[in-house]
Design goal:
By secondary structure, this protein is α/β, with parallel strands linked by helices. It contains 14 helices and 20 strands.
Length: 491
């Protein structure tokens, strides 16, 4: 029997998601005295992508001192690039330290959110049938939360274990097995080297070769960790240095794509250094500019692929059959286990949640030609809805945590304005959103991501809805405070 509740007084906010975005937003709301909120999490634990992606070798490609909250520094990261378990532990630590656990509802999936103009509140319905009411709805679902399976005939017919890297089945023993891996993106580049020593044979199905650079990874010594802990200024300087060295990469990605040629030479040298087979070298050499797709960093990917029991297959997949994978040349490649390293539905923001704004407008329909939001946060016709890590706020060169912290400040300013001015809601002016996104698409058209390759940065129609086409400090300046004339203020 469905439960239904309608609290006498609405919550200040409902936050969907408990990754870096949702927890960071909750901490900052609390600090500003906006404490009547809940966080709704569909899974049985917090952590977002760092809860889900527990495959072998999972880790971050942004330095740990940078990939953490500025207001909650950790000086004893054991590695320059943190591993999945270390990041997940950090997220849990933050939830505990800032007393969020009692306001988190686990196993609570949001099915629908509907805005009521008369009350100025969002009515949020969960999978159990419960209805919650809040003045503000903050979507912190992230962009990489829905595993994407390839559209290949016969996927369901495979006789052996088959799973996506974000749903890794640790109980499947790969020792001595013939394993087929479909996909060569950021997840595959991490788990493939971990499983190659175990398997009898590995077939790696590659659609496009990735650009791979060496990873400047290392352990942080206990002495270094102690000094960083004793002298916080050293940690702050290290974080600033990491930020600046990553930020300068935007010059090549966004403003002067020709600058990436130097990195291309380094990547090709890295390839030749570790791959001895000329045929494999040819298969692993990208045919598009570096940066057009996500750049990968790894020290052990190429050495793993150089092993004689690893084959790189580039002919394309015709179908999957119970015995394995059939390529387009008609060859059957036997497999005992099938692993998908095929990424996520990154351009389908907030799906499959049904979100309805003013006049019955549905967000999925509004975004049918590609998601867009003002500053990646506000959407016209959907008052008091704030999207964290929304359209065109992903990065190819720096830490998303920096972008999220910029958004926290902006959202809090909007929530305070509604409360302090006695408003029912703020609704973005449609023409403001249109002008903003026209400029974003214009800026994106000159970036390295628009150099002709197909990637998860783009919709099927080629619209760039994922990445921020600029410097992160420009985005922070842009979101330092709302321009109130951008919004209709309704009492």
């Amino acid at each position: 029997m469905n439960k239904k509740s309608s609290p006498a007084a609405p919550l200040d906010a409902i936050i969907i998601g408990t990754g870096f975005g949702g927890l960071g937003m909750a901490i900052q709301l609390d600090r500003q005295g906006i404490s009547n909120f809940v966080l709704l999490e569909k899974a049985a634990d917090i952590g977002g992508t760092w809860r889900d992606n527990h495959y072998p070798g999972s880790g971050c490609d942004v330095p740990s001192h940078l990939y953490s909250y500025s207001f909650e520094p950790r000086t004893n990261w054991p590695h320059k690039f943190a591993r999945q378990g270390e990041i997940h532990a950090y997220i849990r630590h933050c939830a505990d330290k800032y007393h969020l656990r009692q306001r988190i509802r686990l196993n609570c999936e949001v099915r629908e959110a509907r805005f009521d103009a008369d009350s100025g509140c969002w009515q949020v319905t969960t999978a159990s049938g419960e209805t919650l009411q809040a003045r503000n709805l903050i979507a912190a679902c992230g962009q990489l939360n829905r595993p994407l399976l390839p559209k290949i005939d016969g996927l369901d017919s495979f006789a052996g274990p088959a799973f996506h890297s974000a749903e890794w089945q640790h109980d499947v023993d790969l020792k001595g097995k013939r394993v087929a891996v479909i996909g060569t993106g950021a997840s595959a580049i991490q788990f493939v080297p971990q499983i190659v020593p175990k398997v009898a044979h590995l077939d790696l199905y590659q659609r496009n070769a990735a650009w791979v650079l060496p990873k400047d990874d290392r352990e942080y010594s206990g002495t270094r960790q102690r000094w960083l802990g004793r002298l916080p200024v050293l940690h702050q300087l290290d974080r600033l240095w990491q930020y600046l060295t990553h930020e300068v990469r935007a010059l090549g990605f966004v403003h002067f794509p020709a600058l990436v040629k130097y990195s291309e030479k380094n990547a090709l040298a890295h390839l030749r250094r570790h791959i001895s087979d000329p045929a494999k070298q040819a298969a692993l050499t990208p045919d598009y500019p570096l940066g057009c797709k996500r750049i990968l960093i790894s020290n052990n990917y190429y050495p793993a692929l150089n092993q004689p029991h690893v084959d790189i297959l580039t002919d394309g997949i015709e179908k999957v059959v119970p015995e394995g994978v059939v390529t387009r040349d008609g060859t059957l490649h036997p497999a005992d286990v099938l692993i998908y390293g095929t990424g996520f539905a990154a351009t389908e923001f907030l799906a499959p949640i049904r979100i309805t704004g003013l006049d019955g407008r549905e967000l999925n329909e509004t975004w049918r030609d590609g998601a867009e939001a003002y500053k990646g946060i506000s959407v016209a016709g959907f008052p008091n809805l704030y999207v964290l890590y929304g359209p065109n706020t992903n990065l190819g060169h720096n830490s998303i945590i920096y972008m999220l912290e910029s958004q926290f400040r902006y959202v809090i300013s909007c929530i305070k304005a509604v409360r302090n001015r006695g408003l029912r809601y703020l609704d973005l002016q449609p023409d403001v959103q249109t002008r903003y996104n026209q400029q974003v698409q214009k800026d994106a058209s000159g970036t390295v991501w628009a150099q002709g390759c197909q990637s998860w940065y783009l919709t099927a129609d080629g619209k760039q809805t994922v990445n921020w086409p600029g410097f992160t400090f420009t985005y922070r300046h842009m979101t330092r405070k709302p321009t109130w004339s951008d919004y209709v203020q309704v009492r």
